[in-house]
Every structure is written in C-alpha cells, then in structure tokens.
Specification:
Layout lengths: L1 E3 L5 E3 L5 E4 L4 H12 L8 E4 L12 E3 L2 H6 L3 E4 L3 H4 L10 E4 L6 H8 L4 E4 L10 E7 L5 H14 E5 L3 H12 L3 H16 L4 H21 L4 H11 L2 H11 L2 H22 L1
Parallel strand pairs: 3-4, 3-6, 4-5, 6-7, 7-8, 9-10
Antiparallel strand pairs: 1-2, 8-9
Helix pairs in contact: 1-5, 6-11, 7-8, 9-10
Length: about 280
C-alpha cells in the first residue's frame, strides 16, 4: 500500500489511491477486485472509468467516464484499455506512476503521451480473475524503489509477478504468459470435442477435462522437476499416455506451439512499432 507525499510520489505501507482507466472491462475489474481484496486500496480510494454503461459493482468506489478526472484523483494510474483505444486516450499524468497492462505499447510512448517519467509495462493474464495471474513487468529508469514496491504489491495480489530487464522480454512474454491461459483452453476444447464425438455426455466430458487441467496445474506447481521430466515419466511407462504423446508429437504438437508463440511475439513487436 502507499500514500500521497508532498512531492507527488507514493510510499509503500499506507493506503493507496488507484485509478483504473478501463475499470469497467474484464481485466481492469479483475485487478480492482484483487487490490481491494488485498487491502492495497479502500473502496473510497479506488477510481474506475467506463465507456458506456456503468458496471454494477464496487459501489463505494468513484466511477466516471472522464479519464482525466480519474487521473487527477489518483496516485497510481492503471491503463487497462485496448492498444487501439489508447491511441485516442489523452490523459495528463504528470509526476504520477502509470502502469500499462496493454500489449505492445512501449515505455517511451507511455511517458511521452502521459507526461510522466514514471511508467511501467505489465502483462497480467486471464488468471487475474482467480488471483492466479503471472505478470511480468518492467519500469522505466526513473521509477523508484517505492514505485517498484507498489507494482509488486498490485500484481502479487493478482497472483505472481517478476520484474524483467528488457522490453524485448515483455514482448515475448505477451504470448507465453499474457496469452497463455488461452492455450490450455484451446487444448481443453479439442479434448472435449473428441470426447463428445466418442459418445461422452457433454457435462461428463467437461468435468473430466477441467479436472485434468486443474490437476496438472497443481502438479506442476508443487513438483520440483520440470515439465519435460514429467513427460518423460509418462513416456517411460509405455502405456496409453505414451501412445498419445508420441502421436501428438509426430503430428507436430511442438511445432504448432512454437509457431503460435512466435506469431504472438511478432504481433507484440508490430503493435509497439505502431504506438
């Protein structure tokens, strides 16, 4: 948590005034809920903006369609909008900590657009909704240790976070972790489709597939070995799992994943060039 200082900076340890531009959207709302649950801000010090219809939640917080009004009352401004919409976002955040959760938009562009030298690029993912996001982030040279503490606190509240050393790492992770929750969902869809085609009840197929993915996540989280070791363990049994793995690999599973991650990385770089 943090508070105002006379010089406009924020200090860790006190109540923090956070404004989320795009707080009416899915990711912005997930971050808002996480910081409230963690006690980083009180409902009264949380400000959120929306585009059309005001969401029916966070009733004690300040809601507005005026993004500058939100910025004026906030120590920390989170930009949770689509990069295409950001192109038209004119908000003066002079002297404030600005945290972007947009893919592609560079630190230099954030500083120039919003009149601040204290900018951060962060990439939380869909897991933020259940406090299981992985969030890589990087700050510009002018952020202080107190700013880093605020960023860590916000994204620890959403799950896990790591500070990166280069923006190129952030661009790559836009696909690996930023888009990441979509990939198990894609696998789940393929598995469900196959199960239903073989006569399984849809609800049974859904429960089976969900349990597999959730259980695998917990397994990988708690085991000391890496995923490759787990795969080799299953291959070593030479049973049904080994047969499935070998067929998937021969069909190009690894190549398809690599091509997808490369496409996401290239898209992130192109988006940054456009900003």
């Amino acid at each position: 948590m943090a508070t105002n200082r006379s010089d406009g900076k924020v200090e860790a340890g006190k109540d923090l005034s956070i404004g989320i531009i795009g707080g009416g959207g899915w990711l912005g709302a997930a971050i808002a809920a996480a910081v409230l649950d963690a006690g980083l801000a009180s409902p009264e010090t949380l400000s959120l903006s929306y585009r059309s219809n005001r969401p029916d939640r966070f009733h004690k917080s300040f809601w507005t369609r005026d993004n500058q009004a939100l910025a004026d009352r906030s120590d920390v401004i989170v930009l949770s909008v689509r990069p295409a919409d950001w192109q038209h976002l004119a908000v003066d955040a002079k002297g404030k900590l600005v945290i972007s959760v947009m893919a592609g938009v560079r630190l230099a562009s954030l500083c120039d657009r919003h009149g601040t030298r204290r900018a951060v690029r962060a990439l939380p993912n869909a897991g933020a909704e259940v406090l299981k996001s992985y969030t890589p982030w990087i700050g510009c040279h002018d952020i202080e240790e107190a700013d880093r503490t605020v960023v860590r606190n916000i994204f620890d509240a959403c799950g896990l976070q790591d500070e990166m050393q280069t923006e190129a790492e952030i661009d790559y992770l836009a696909g690996l972790s930023g888009s990441g929750p979509a990939f198990p969902a894609l696998l789940a869809e393929a598995m469900m489709t196959h199960a239903i085609a073989h006569g399984l009840n849809r609800q049974v197929a859904r429960r089976a597939v969900d349990a597999v993915l959730v259980g695998t996540g917990r397994l990988l989280e708690q085991r000391a070995d890496c995923p490759a070791d787990t795969v080799q363990t299953f291959l070593g049994y030479r049973g049904t799992t080994a047969a499935a793995i070998e067929e998937m690999m021969s069909a190009g599973f690894g190549t398809a994943v690599a091509r997808g991650l490369a496409a996401a990385f290239e898209k992130s770089v192109r988006m940054g060039e456009a900003s």
